[in-house]
């Protein structure tokens, strides 16, 4: 069944009456930028919700090509439709030619682990909007949702190997946990005693043991 509401990193398109569903009034400049962006038919990224937000509210982000980050707080009725983050395979044509080999290796790694590799950040913004976001030093922000802890371990090992082979682009991103939280794959690969987890609402440090316990037992 499809999700009842968009999740963090999903992409939403606002309806024509979106401004009637504002929960927190933005400043005049933010309102102008958001209005212009929407009128060009471009989407917004779902951000982390605040702890006190209601279930019928949504926090959205708009990252502009000049790296300014704008925030929008709306009710769910403002959303006309939404979609998941684009897959890495979908964005390969958007990326610079020099990145293609590394991206192909990550796609192959995902296929070997039966994982769909998705993308957020600058590459996703450029792919979804058609506006130029990428710079020579841009990262590729990857998103993975492994089913078991053993998949996490194999994924981290594979990503480190790909990163060593391809220094032309930095591979960043997150591993999504079964409870909807997310952790940096690079931080997770270091196996720290505690690691920062970004949840659907708020963020907090947790232990590696707690993260492992979230995953179901191996079949």
UniProtKB/TrEMBL annotation:
This is Malonate decarboxylase holo-[acyl-carrier-protein] synthase. Residues 88-202 form the Phosphoribosyl-dephospho-CoA transferase MdcG C-terminal domain. Keywords: Nucleotidyltransferase, Transferase. Signal peptide: none annotated. GO terms for molecular function: nucleotidyltransferase activity. Residues 8-85 form the Phosphoribosyl-dephospho-CoA transferase MdcG N-terminal domain. Pfam families: MdcG, MdcG_N.
